[in-house]
Amino acid sequence: AKVRHFKWTVEYVYWSPDCVEHPVMGINGKFPGPTIHAKTGDTIVVDLTNKLSTEGLVIHWHGIRQLGTPWADGTASISQCAINPGETFQYRFKVDKAGTYFYHGHYGMQRSAGLDWWHKSVHEQEVGLNSIPFRWINEPQSLLINGKGQYNCSLAAHYNISSSISQCKLKGGEQCAPQILHVRPNKVYRLRIASTTALASLNLAIGNHKMVVVEADGNYVQPFEVDDIDIYSGETSHSLTKYLPLMGTPQPPKNYERRILLLNTQNKIDGFTKWSINNVSLTLPSTPYLGSIRYGLKRAFDAKPPPEKFSSDYDVTKPPVNPNSTYGSGVYMIRLNTIVDVILQNANALSGNVSEIHPWHLHGHDFWVLGYGEGKFSDGDEKKFNLKNPPLRNTAVIFPYGWTALRFVADNPGAWAFHCHIEPHLHMGMGVVLALGVEHVNNIPNEALACGLTGKKFSKQKQKH
Ligand code: C2O
Ligand code: CU
After folding, report:
1. Nearest alpha carbon, ligand 1 atom 2
2. For residue 411, what are the domain limits?
3. Counting ligands in written order, which one lies closest to the CA of residue 64?
4. Looking at residue 235, what is its pLDDT?
5. Ligand 1 center from residue 165 Cα (angstroms)
6. Is the distance from the beta carbon of residue 421 to the nearest atom of ligand 1 less than 6 Å?
């Protein structure tokens, strides 16, 4: 196994991802950032310097479980303090298994600078979401593949075509020129696919060709042929509800020890539009959970744990009777090694006859997807769970008005985010935090603790010396 060392600087640069120039967050002057090639067992070390000058920064390594390194998970307010302008933070973690992964910002709405592309800055989008009246971000202006798209060219993304729109006349050297994959006939090629969208659910096909799916979220599956794949934000490879894990994939334990029901609703708080889980809209505290729990700083977040279920007479087919919700920063405290079932329950949004798709992503663990169903989950649905060969994933979708059942063994000590991967939804409160075995976490780097109450605690200690 190798140690692979990288030095990355993040700063705003002018770029034309979709042929329209805007400031974008670049890594080492480029957009998108560099690809890391590594093998199972390798250690990745990234010295990340924030040169954004106006905002904090963290990077999350989506799909890497961070076994034994929860402080390297890159979630602001959860695993670490945001890296301040001018500061450097070192991410050091092991590649725990082969697969296709991606990385992205996990502070504010920084991830919205990804595969779907808006001409409005992330900051303007954020202000709109936090305004009365509410301003939705709407559809992205472009879709980018490997950072390249063509705004307003629709099907005209060809070279040297006579187009009336000057930006659509591409020669091939432009930043927005579509990437060409040169292939030979009758050869088999591997494509690594990740949906880094902030909003869109996509479908991917290769004209006149079939694809064989072999891996999803870092887990091999029994190969199967498809014409196209549906892919939701946060998924690598794809999300058919019916596919089989490869032989040798661990099976889920037969019983759960704790079941958490999570009702997903759209709500209002003081006139602002929010998303809530069991009527709590997540607000992140200024002291990251990992440090505050490790050092017993109880005032850092809501002492009251969030609810384990929702009222059994809630009608998921109608807008909420009482749309009022509350902010909360409480944590699901889970005993280490507990077998946990999570039932994600979808419901009607604020307006009638609207229920959206939400791709939920768990940090620090993979889970088995035991089943999907329509309507409200009931105990009888448990009989239909697939315990024989359920797929192992880190992201799973809840379909409109439906439920999705997940099982995982909470065996990786840390404080972990579990949330809808649609960036504006997370920003509006659609997530929860799980904490387990934090007392076993040692060697949290000081830089990860240098804010909020942990910051105060450690700077006081320093002064005493
Ligand atoms: Cu890719 Cu917490 O997300
Ligand atoms: Cu969502």
Report:
1. 417
2. 258-440
3. 1
4. 87
5. 37
6. yes
Boundary of a domain, candidates 133, 154, 171? 133
Q: Is residue 112 part of a domain?
A: yes
Distance 40 CA to ligand 2 centre (A): 32
In the numeric block, the tokens 């032989």 are attached to: 247
What are the tokens at 406? 């997940």
Residues 404 and 264 grouped into a single domain: yes
d(CA 290, CA 27): 27
Which residues are CB-neighbours of 104 under 8 A, at least 6 positions away? Answer: 59, 60, 62, 110, 111, 114, 196
Strand 219-226 to strand 211-216: parallel, antiparallel, or no bridges (unpaired)? antiparallel
The pTM assigned to this predicted structure is 0.95
pLDDT for the residue numbered 113: 67
Cα of 361 vs centre of ligand 1, distance in Å, is 6
Q: 363 in ligand 1 pocket by Cβ < 6 Å?
A: yes
What are the pLDDT digits (tens) for 60-83?
Answer: 999 999 999 999 999 999 999 999
Q: Which uninterrupted H or E stretch holds 459? A: helix 452-464
End-to-end CA distance of the chain: 40
User: Nearest Cα to 32, choosing from 17, 21, 47?
Assistant: 17
| Cα–Cα distance measured from residue 216 to residue 99, given in angstroms and rounded to the nearest whole number | 8
Residues 285 and 420 in one domain: yes
Quote the mean pLDDT of the chain: 93
pLDDT at 156 over 50: no
Q: Which of 65, 100, 133 is the last residue of a domain?
A: 133
Ligand 2 centroid–CA 390 distance in Å is 23
- Please indicate, yes or no, if residue 211 is contained in any of the structural domains: no
Residue whose CA is at the smallest distance from ligand 1 atom 1: 62
Residue 76 lies in a domain: yes
Asked whether residue 25 carries a pLDDT value surpassing 70, the answer given is yes
Decide if 209 is inside a domain.
no
Work out the burial of residue 400: count CB atoms within 10 Å of its CB; fewer than 13 is exposed, 13-18 middle, 19 or more buried: middle
Indicate the number of domains in the chain. Answer: 2
**CATH at residue 36:** 2.60.40.420
Instruction: Kindly state the DSSP code that residue 440 receives in the 8-state scheme.
Output: G
Q: Are 60 and 89 spatial neighbours (Cβ–Cβ below 8 Å)?
A: no
Cα–Cα distance between 346 and 317 in angstroms, integer? 9
- 248 vs 19, which has greater pLDDT? 19
The answer to whether residues 404 and 398 touch, using CB atoms and an 8 Å cutoff, is: yes
The span from the CA of 112 to the CA of 139, in Å, is 12
- Top-confidence range, 85-99, 117-131, 206-220: 85-99
